[in-house]
Specification:
Oligomer: single chain
Structural class: alpha+beta
Helix content: 40-55%
Number of helices: 10
Distance between the termini: 141 Å
Strand order of the largest sheet: 1-2-3-4-5
Number of strands: 10
Length: about 425
C-alpha cells in the first residue's frame, strides 16, 4: 500500500516516536509506520546511486515472521536483485544452521546493503554487513588481501585506512553488524528537515566505491563462492540422480510388490474357486449318496413289505388249505348220504304208537350190498398235468398236479398246495 509520497520533506518527532519499544508489536501503529516508510523510501530514491543487478527494497512495517513480530526500525536499501539472491541462497543456507534461518529470515541480513535506517534514536545511512552475510564477508576479506590498492582507493573518499576497516571486519565477525557510514540523532534530523537529503546523498556517494569493492559478484569471486556453488550444484545433481535411482528402485519394488499381491490375490481366488468346486462336488456326492441310501432304504422297505405280504399270503393260504382239508370230508360225506334220508330240518310228527303184538317173523337171509369203492382219479389226471380248479376258495385258479392221494389230488397253485377232489378239477 502506497500513500503516494513522491517528494521528501523531512521527518517529525512523531515519526521517530512511532518506533518506541512499547509500539514495536502493536498493530495500531501500522499506518504511522507506513507513512514513515514512504518518507524514508522517497529520501532513498533521491540519495542512493543506481547500479545494474541491484534493486531498491525495504523492510516490513507490519509485525510478521520476517521481523520476529516486532518492528523496531525501518530500513530502505539497495540489495542484489531476486535472481542473484536465489543464486547465492543454497550457499548461504549451507553456512547457517536451520535454527538461525528460522530465527532470522530477513533478507537484508544475508547480503551487503547500502541504505538508510530510522529508529526511535535517529537516522543512520551508510553501508551495512551482517554476520549472516557470509559470502560478502569472505569476499571482502579475500579481495582486500589480494587487492590492497583497490581497497585503499575505495576508502580514499572516506578518509579511512584499510587497516582500520580490516580490523573492524575481524571484530565484526563476533558482532551482528559491521556499519560504515554516519548516524544523526533525531533532533538534528528534525532540524535539517528536507535539507538532509543532500547530506545523505553525499555520504552514500562516498561509500559507493567501498560498496562496489566489498560486494561479491561472479566477475570478482575472491571468496571462492563459485566453486562452492558448483560443488553444491554437483552435489544437488548427484542427490537428484540418487533420488531418481532410489525412486526407480522404489517404483520397481512397488511394482513387484503389486505383482506379487496380484498373484497372491489370484492364487487366493483360484484356491477359493477350487475349494468351492470341491465343496459343490462333495455336496453333490453327499446328496447322491443320501438319495441312493434313501432309495435303498425304500427298496429294502418295499422288499420287507413284499416279504411280509408273501408271508401273510402264505399264512392265509395255509389257513385256507387247512379249512379246505377240514371241509373236504364233510362234503364227501354229504354227497355219499342216501337221498331218501329225512332232512334234519323237518320235524318229525309224533304218531301214537299202538301196542301191537309183535309177531315172530322168520328172518330171511338178505344178500349183503357191496360197499362203494373209492373214486379213482380220471385217466388224464397224472403228475405234472395242468388243471383248473372248479370249486372252492381257489375256483378259477390254475395249477399243477403234484401228488395223487386216493380220492384227493394235491394241486400246487403258486406257492400253495391244496387237496382237491378229481371231479372239482378240469384238465387243461
Amino acid at each position: 500500500m502506497s500513500l503516494l509520497i513522491s517528494a521528501f520533506e523531512g521527518f517529525s518527532d512523531q515519526d521517530f516516536e512511532t518506533y518506541a519499544s512499547a509500539r514495536w508489536s502493536n498493530n495500531r501503529y501500522n499506518l504511522p509506520r507506513m507513512k514513515v516508510k514512504e518518507r524514508l523510501t522517497a529520501l532513498a530514491r533521491a540519495a542512493l546511486p543506481t547500479l545494474e543487478g541491484w534493486s531498491l527494497d525495504a523492510s516490513s512495517e507490519i509485525p510478521d515472521v520476517w521481523n520476529g513480530r516486532s518492528v523496531q526500525d525501518q530500513w530502505v536499501y539497495l540489495i542484489r536483485d531476486a535472481s542473484a539472491r536465489a543464486r547465492l541462497e543454497p550457499l548461504l543456507n549451507q553456512k547457517q544452521s536451520l535454527m538461525a534461518q528460522v530465527q532470522d529470515p530477513a533478507q537484508h541480513h544475508q547480503h551487503l546493503i547500502l541504505g538508510l535506517r530510522l529508529d526511535v534514536e535517529g537516522l543512520a545511512f551508510g553501508l551495512w554487513l551482517h554476520a549472516h552475510a557470509a559470502v560478502d564477508r569472505a569476499h571482502v576479506l579475500a579481495r582486500a588481501a589480494a587487492e590492497p590498492e583497490g581497497l585503499a582507493a575505495a576508502l580514499a573518499p572516506l578518509e579511512m585506512a584499510p587497516s582500520a576497516l580490516l580490523a573492524r571486519l575481524r571484530v565484526a565477525a563476533m558482532e551482528p553488524w559491521l556499519f560504515v557510514g554516519e548516524r544523526l540523532p533525531r533532533d538534528e534530523v528534525e532540524a535539517l528537515g528536507g535539507d538532509i537529503e543532500a547530506r545523505v546523498a553525499a555520504q552514500l556517494e562516498a561509500l559507493s566505491g567501498l560498496w562496489r569493492f566489498a560486494a561479491w559478484d561472479e566477475a570478482h569471486d575472491h571468496g571462492a563462492a563459485l566453486a562452492q556453488l558448483s560443488a553444491l550444484e554437483a552435489a544437488r545433481a548427484a542427490r537428484a540422480v540418487t533420488l531418481a535411482q532410489q525412486q526407480e528402485v522404489a517404483e520397481a519394488e512397488r511394482a513387484q510388490r503389486q505383482e506379487e499381491a496380484i498373484a497372491r490375490a489370484q492364487m487366493r481366488q483360484d484356491d477359493e474357486a477350487l475349494w468351492r468346486e470341491r465343496r459343490r462336488k462333495h455336496r453333490a456326492e453327499r446328496r447322491a449318496a443320501e438319495k441312493a441310501a434313501a432309495e435303498a432304504a425304500e427298496q429294502a422297505k418295499a422288499e420287507a413289505q413284499a416279504k411280509a405280504a408273501a408271508r401273510a399270503a402264505e399264512r392265509a393260504a395255509s389257513a385256507l388249505v387247512e379249512a379246505a382239508e377240514i371241509t373236504a370230508p364233510t362234503e364227501s360225506m354229504t354227497s355219499d348220504a342216501a337221498p331218501d334220508a329225512p332232512s334234519a330240518d323237518k320235524p318229525k310228527a309224533d304218531k301214537p304208537k299202538a301196542d301191537k303184538p309183535k309177531a315172530d317173523k322168520p328172518k330171511a337171509d338178505k344178500p349183503k350190498a357191496d360197499k362203494p369203492k373209492a373214486d379213482k382219479p380220471s385217466a388224464g389226471l397224472k403228475l405234472g398235468a395242468r388243471v383248473c380248479l372248479e370249486r372252492g376258495l381257489l375256483a378259477g385258479k390254475e395249477g399243477e398236479i403234484s401228488a395223487l392221494n386216493g380220492a384227493y389230488i394235491k394241486v400246487r397253485v403258486g406257492p400253495l398246495e391244496v387237496n382237491v377232489k378229481a371231479e372239482d378239477l378240469r384238465l387243461l
